[in-house]
Each structure stands twice: as structure tokens, then as C-alpha cells.
Amino acid sequence: MSKSYLDAGETHCAIGHPKSVFWQWMLTVDHKRIGLMYAAVIFTFFFVAVFVALTMRIELFAPGAQILDGDTFNQAFTLHGVIMIFLFIIPGVPAVFGNIVMPLMIGAKDVSFPRLNWFTFWLYIFGAIIALSSLWTGHGFADTGWTFYAPYSLNTNTNVVTTLVAAFILGMASILTGLNFLVTIHRLRAPGMDFFKMPLFVWGIYATAWIQLLATPVVGITLVLALLEKVFGIGIFDPAKGGDPVLFEHLFWIYSHPAVYLMILPAFGIMSEIIPTFSRREIFGYRTIALSSASIAGIGYLVWGHHLFTSGMSDLAKTIFSFLTFFVAIPTGIKFYDWVATMYKGQIHLTSPMLWALGTMITFVIGGLTGVTIAMIGADIHLQDTYYSVAHFHYAMLGGVVFLLFAGIHYWFPLMFGKMLNERKAKIGFYLNFVGFNVLWFPMFIAGYQGMPRRYFDYLPEFQIYHQISFFGALIFITGLIYMFTNFISSMKHGEPSGTNPWNATTLEWHLPSSPPPLENHSKVPYVDFRPYEYHHGEPVVKFNYETMQRID
Amino acid sequence: MDINTYKAQKAKYYKVLVGLLLLTTLTFVQPHLFLENATFAIQLMIGAVKAWLIVMYYMHLKGETLIGWTVAFAIALVVIFFATVITDVNHFQFKDSSYITEQHASAGEHVQHHEE
Amino acid sequence: MSHEEHGHEYVPEIATARDGKKYEVQGWQGDFYGGKLGFWLFMLTEVMMFGAMFLTLTYYFSLHHDAFIEASSEFSVLLGGTNTVVLLISALTMGLGLLKMRAGDVKGAKLMIYATMILAVVFLAIKGVEWTEDYHEGIFLGLPALQAGNPDSRSFGEILFFGMYFTMTGLHGFHIIIGIGLMIWLLKRINAGKVTTEHHILHFNIALYWDLVHLIWVFVFPYFYMIGAGHGH
Predict the structure, then answer these.
(1) Which of A365, B33, C5, C160 is deepest in the core (most CB within 10 A)?
(2) Which residue in B81, B103, B116 is closest to A385 by CB distance?
(3) Which of C89, A164, A354 lies closest to B58, judged by CA?
(4) How far is A31 from A111, CA to CA, in rounded Å?
């Protein structure tokens, strides 16, 4: 049996040539192993944050205090937000599948700077440790919300300083990932693969990398300024010294809004891979989908003001931001129409990845459309900071980004481990998650519309029914998550061998010489004179001799 | 590289240096000599010219295409952020009752800044 | 940042098209342009960072126009201006060093790097003198003049101006210190034979870095020292 990248000794290391398997993992510069390590870590943090959320749901089951007091509740939603955003979803798809799959898709042997990639992973770990260490030091975890708004964040005595330092380090890791991917995509594409022959997942990673690179530094410096303010009392955001908290909001959201596009663009890339494979057809509108990724990244820099609609911005600014926010929904809509058009008259295979993709189409549309609702200034005045916003962004982030991340795991599981997932269990897992998710989040639209504010520890009795329904949804959803992850782990050990191309797909990651992939990826770099999704009557057009990577069709 | 290229490039470096030194001198004397009212604008314009010289010649951007576009994109973003935020702060809705734009001798009216 | 392969020279792969034409595959090793591109992208992040700080500065300048100009007139244009010239010359020496390296004059390149380092230290020394002077006049982070609500408190505009001054020149100085560290590392790599006329991407990128540090000062200096210079003090 040929060796794979997972075998002992089959890896390149940043320092030396260690004999022990442990150090081979700790020092590996192989993009595939680094992606797996990111996956292991981010999903551990994901479950921690899910259980923090469950604790909040238990607390909110009835009005008044149940198991938490108000201050602890504030720390809980801050912890949930900081872990989910900085430790889970922003590294998210780029760190896992950007690392594992993107170089394979362009025919490269690794990223442009493998040692930087190794360093970036450990920088991420370092930042995560600092963030979580603040749970046990000083006055406990920050209680400001993950948004750290001034002036409360300046005056509270909880561990804001530690979290700001951690967020800065995590931001640096995000920047370096984006930088690495940008140079990789510009420099290491196989000969013949121009930009419009790249798979759409690579387009997604490319557009994301631009946001990682240019938007993150803005929040980085904002956090540094807030930090200096807390330590040296400079006065930048503190009204007592003439500072303006609204400036903090501007600077914070100049990053944090593009950040959500950073989350969704690679996820949409995954959708663009799954749909053609399981419709057995070339994707409809390749060029428009590619350019829509670029335009979402570009226009996404210009809409941050919709987070400040109620902060006293000028009417002109509000109007322009509202218009641009509506406008940025258009490229996303184009993608959805293109995906549906791809499925039309295709041979649909309802495998587990396809189920996840289709489920996401429903949940993300809800998330996206409710975002458009609150892009209307008048509606936003009423709905800002209510459960409506919370439901909106969970439908978009959880029902969009995370569902597609799960879809990606189901799709690329055979690539990563050389084994198939248990399909029956995978489908049960999907339905549990999908039903649970909707029961958990949909009532919150209604509760928010009725006026239930977010981040509130207590509430009026008229809202209780919504919290109770949500709680049961949460139980179903968490059951689904645990069931699904148990399937992942057992299939890693006992799954059926998959072969190199179980889905009979067209993109280059499915044309490796053996499964799981060998350390050096393709046996030879192919010359790419074909489009990424060429199917003829449901069968891939391009066929390779896997020793020479020459086309034999 | 051959000796002639080396001499040519060295000459260019010195020419740019002279340009930068002249502009720096201009920076020092302008507030005392001319257009004193527009000092801020003039100073930043001089800075922009110096920056252009440094980026084009010392940082060798002159021959680059892709990198040139990425630099232009980043600068354009910064300009847009500036234009948006600075215009907005000058049309702040509650400017008249804002605590931070006029200093009050006493504790004064402290406006509740709406927090998200 | 980038790396050089020595000992095992990298041989690029060849991909063959269907018509028999051969194409060289760009690997991640030995990619000078990739190293250049990567470092420029990193510098763009610095542009965004300092850009956001200039944004903050301009925000408060527009809110406190007169206070900013008054405060600016308190600074010594002599000291700040000297630093400007020092940094300018250091950009020249750094650039000449790179030129010599590319032309094969490794010894001359090292001398230029030393010269740049000395000028950088001079810059920091003058900045130290300035900050000490400010401290003795009561203008420093944490001192009562820059806090609110006490008899020595300056006006809002002045507090913000001086606060941003120490922040921005402090961060700039921090980048100078890093630059000195990078130059020491560069000298070590040259002495170890890892940076040569043929493989000098590290030298190239560090020179770019130093130009960026200079570039930031090109805007910091007039913004803090010159806007009030016509008002005498």
C-alpha cells in the first residue's frame, strides 16, 4: 500500500527531522496535516461555546434567575461570542479546507510559505490559550459582549485586557493565513490554470484572503488603541477625556462587517463545489459566481455603517449605508440563482453532502432575507439589538457558514481520511441538526419582533413561550451535533475505504494517485487545459493517467 | 548586475534623495512663508509627493503591475474609510447636545450615547 | 516572509501539455517574486493599521481644530525635523546597501546596513530626548495634564492630540526597534552565507520594510509638528 500523508514519517517539519510521531505532528509544515489540526482544535472550541450557549438557554427558560446571576450571564454571552467568532468561525473554513483542499485544487505541492503556515497555526493556539486563560484570572472573563464597546469596556474590571491581547494575536494569525493563500493562488497554480479555470472554492478562498489581509489590521489597531486606553488612559474612546465611543464602533465594524463576508465566501465556495458534483452537471454561470465572490468582498467593505444605524450617524450616511447593504445582497442572490439553475435538469444525487448543501440553501436564504429587512433604517430602529438580529445572524452564520462547513466535512471526508462516512447516520444527523436548528432559532424572529432585547438576562413573561420552544430546539440540535460528530469519529476508524474519487467529481483534489493523499500530493503537476466542472451526460470529461498526470480522454 | 546598471541605479537613488531633501526643506519653511492658512493641506500634499517618490523609486514599485494594483486598492480603501467617517462625524446628529464637542465648565449636560 | 534553500538545490518540475509543449512549474521554493509579493501584502496591513490611526487623528482634528494647532505649536520642529532628515538619509543608506548586494559588493552592503542601524539609533535617541522633555513639562501618558477633571487638565483637544502623539510615535518607534533587530539578523544571515548576491530576497524585503518605516514618518512628522508651526510658541 502506498504511503499517505497520515503515516508516520511522511511529513516535512519546520525544524529538523524528528523521529517521534508526536513531534512530527507538532512541527509539521504539511498543509494537509495543519488543516486537520485546525479542525480538531476549532471543533473542540465549538463544542465548548455550544455548551456555554446551552447554559444560557437553560437560564433563559424562565424569567428571573435560574442558574446564573446577571453578571455571570454577561460573561457567558461574551465567552460564547469570543469563542465562536475569534476561535471558531473566522479561522473556520479557510483554516481547515483552505489549507487541506485549496493547494490540491490548483495542483500545488503546498502553500507558498509552509513554515509561515506552521507558525501561524501555533500563533492561533497561543492566542486561544490567552483568551481562555482569562476565565481563571483576575475578575474573570470579559463581560462586555464580543464587541467590546467603549466606554464600558474601558471601565469594567473584568479581563478585557487579556481578551484584547488574545484577539489581536488571533487577528495576526488570520492576516498571515490570508497572506499565505493570496501568494499561493497567484504563484502556484498549475501551468495553464488561469484565474477563470480555478475551481470556485479557490475563488472563495481568494476573495476571503483579501478581506483577511486588509480588514483585520483595522480591528487590530482598534483593539490596540482600546488596550492602550485601558492601560495608559489616552482618551481616544473615553468621553470623559473627549473621546468618542462612536469612533470605536466605526473602527470595530469596519473590520467586523467584512469579517462576515470572510466567513461566508469560502462557505459559498464549498456550495459551488458540491452542487455540480451531485447534479452531475457543469455549474451554471461560472464566471458570474467567480466575479460575485470578488464583488461581495469589495462591496462588503462599504456597508459597516448598518451596525451603527442607532448611534447618531448623519441621515446621509445612514441612507448610503442602507443602499449599499441592499446592494451587496445582489451578488449573493446571483449565486443562489446560479446554483438552482445548475440543479435544473441535472441528475440529483441526495448524498449527505448534498443534503447539507440544500438545507443550507433554505436556512441561508432566511438569514439573508432577514438581513435585508433590517437593512431598512426604519425597520432597524425597531429591530436593532432584539432577538430578531440574533436570529438573523445565527441563520446566516450557523445556518450558512457552519452548515456549509459541515457539508464540506461530509464532502471531503473521503479525501482527508480515505474512508467513507456512514451515509445512513450522516443523513439522520443532518435531519436532527436541521430540525433542531429551525426550532431553536425561528421563534426568535417573532420574539425579537415583539420586542425581546438581546443580551438580556431577564425578560417579561410574555416572551417565555419563545424561550421555551427555543430550548427544546437547542436540545434537538445539540443531539444532532453530537450524533454527527460521533459518526465522524467512528467512520475515521471503521469507515469503508473510499478510493481516490468516490463522488466521481472533476476537480483536481479528486485526481490524486492514492487515498488518503500522499505527502507530495499529485504524482506530477498536470497541465490544465480544461474547465473545472466539465461533465458530459453526467460523466466527467477529463480523465488522467495517474502516474504521469497526462490526459487520456 | 553590470557596473553601468549599478551606476545608473545609484544615480537615481541620489536624484530621488535630492528631491526628498528639497521637499523636506519646503515642509520646514512653508508655514512661515506662504499659504499659512492651508498649512494642513499643503503639508499633506508635500507628504504625498514624497511618499510617491519613495514608493516608486526606493521601493521599486515603478516596474510592478500586480503589486501596484494591490497597493492602489488598499490606499483606495483607506481613502474611502476616511471620507465616510470624517464626513459622518462632521454631521453628527446630536452635535449640539454632545458632551465631547464643547467642554463644559461644570459637570454639564452628559448626553446618553446610545450603545449597541 | 520567505526563505532560501541551500544544500538541497530545488529543481523545478516540468508539466507537459497534450501537444507536447513543456511548462516549468512554479514551486514554493526559490520564488523571489512570491517572496516580494508576500512582503508587499504584509506591508499593506501596516498601511491599513497606520491608516486607521491617522483616521482617528483626523477625526479628532476635525472635532478640535484649534486645540490641535495650539498643541502642535508646542513641539520642537528642530528635533523632529532633524529626525526627519536622519530617517531620510537612513533610507538612502539602506537602499544603497541593497544595490551593492545586488551588484556583488557584499562588504559594501554590510557597511551600509551598519550605517542604517547607527542612524536608526540616532533617531531613537533624539525621540528619547523629546519624550523626556515632554515628561518634564508634565506632558506624558498618565500625568495629570493628560487626564480629565483635575486643575492641570488640558482641554479635550490637547489631551487627544498628545495622547495620539505618544501612541503613534511610540508605535512608530517600536517599528524602528524591530527594524534594527531585522538588520542585525540580516547581517548574521549574510555572514552565514545564506544571503548572497544570487539569493537576497531577505535583504530586499528588509529594505522595503525600512522604506515603509520612513514612509510612515513622512506623514507623522507634518501632522504632529508642522500643523501648528506657523503659530510660534
Answers:
(1) C160
(2) B116
(3) C89
(4) 7
Task: Compute the distance between CA of residue B103 and CA of residue B105 in angstroms, rounded to an integer.
Answer: 7
Q: CA A296, CA A204: separation in Å to the nearest integer?
A: 10
Distances A266 to A132, A188, A270, C198 between C-alpha atoms, Å: 27, 19, 6, 39
Rounded to a whole number of angstroms, the distance from the CA of B63 to the nearest CA of chain A is 18
* Chain B residues inside the 8 Å CB shell of C37: 66-67
Alpha helices (H) along A419-463: 423-450
Phi and psi dihedrals of C151, rounded to 5?
-60, -25
Residues of A in contact with B115 (CB under 8 A): 149, 152, 245
Q: How far apart are CA A364 and CA A432, in angstroms?
A: 17
Distance of alpha carbon B38 from alpha carbon A468, whole angstroms: 64
Residues of C in contact with A241 (CB under 8 A): 146-148, 156, 159-160, 163
Q: Tell me which amino acid residue A312 is.
A: G
CATH 1.20.210.10 fits A21-551, yes or no: yes
Contacting C residues, span 152-211, partner chain B, CB-CB under 8 Å: 155-156, 208, 211
Homologous superfamily of C32-231 in CATH?
Answer: Cytochrome c oxidase, subunit III, four-helix bundle (1.20.120.80)
Rounded to two decimals, the ipTM of the complex is 0.93
Cα gap C198→A449, rounded to integer Å = 67
**Residues whose CB is less than 8 angstroms from the CB of residue C42 and which lie 6 or more positions away in sequence, other chains included:** A179, C1
Q: Helices in chain C by DSSP H: which ranges?
A: 32-63, 65-72, 77-103, 106-136, 156-191, 201-221
Residues A119, A294: Cα–Cα separation, whole Å: 28
**pLDDT over 60 at C7, yes or no:** no
SS3 A374: helix
Q: What is the DSSP string of A146-188?
A: TTT-TTHHHH--SSHHHHHHHHHHHHHHHHHHHHHHHHHHHH-
**Sole residue written with cell 532560501:** C4
Residues 6+ apart with CB under 8 A from B46: B23, B26, B27, B30, C222
pLDDT in tens, A114-144: 999 999 999 999 999 999 999 998 889 999 9
Residues of A in contact with B104 (CB under 8 A): none
Q: Check whether B103 has a pLDDT greater than 60.
A: no
Whether residue A525 and residue C13 make contact (CB cut-off 8 A), yes or no, is yes
How confident is the model over B33-48, as pLDDT tens digits?
888 888 899 999 999 9
Q: Does A316 touch chain B (CB under 8 A)?
A: yes
